[in-house]
Amino acid sequence: MSGNLLRVQVAFAYADEQLVLSVDVPGGSTMRDAIEHSGIIEKHPEIDLDTMRIGVFGKLRELDAPVQEGDRVEIYRPLKADPKQARRERAARSAKRDAAAG
């Protein structure tokens, strides 16, 4: 790791609350380094980096990917439902309503 510091954010969201922590990490730090340096795992032990995905501004990244100045390292909770399946179910319900109405 080089001597220059990078300012990044580490973010995690519950259904009703979003946590965003600013942290300075040495140049060459990884996503995992930034998360660990932020202290978020100690404060929220339910965060499991072995099962949760991470990304930067909505784009998936690996834990060993380097961070860059201004990155927002996001820790994603597991989805409660498959988005494609939920979309199909909504479409089926809508079609059923339309058929009943018409």
Summarize this structure briefly:
It contains three helices and five strands.
What report would you give on this structure?
With 102 residues, the protein is of the alpha+beta class. It has a single domain, classed as Ubiquitin-like (UB roll) (Roll). The protein has 3 helices and 5 strands. It has helices spanning 31-38, 40-43, 83-101; strands spanning 5-13, 18-26, 53-56, 59-61, 72-76. A 5-stranded mixed beta sheet has the order 2-1-5-3-4, covered by helices on one side. Strand 1 (5-13) and strand 2 form a beta hairpin. The mean pLDDT is 89.
Q: Do you know the CATH architecture?
A: Roll
Kindly report the CATH topology: Ubiquitin-like (UB roll)
Number of separate helices: 3
Order of helices and strands: EEHHEEEH
**Head-to-tail CA distance between termini:** 66 Å
Based on CA atoms alone, the radius of gyration comes out at 19 Å
CATH-wise, what's the superfamily?
Beta-grasp domain
Percent in helix: 25-40%
Taken as a percent bin, the fraction of beta residues is 25-35%
Number of domains: 1
Unreliable stretches, pLDDT < 50, 5 or more residues? Answer: none
Can you count the beta strands? 5
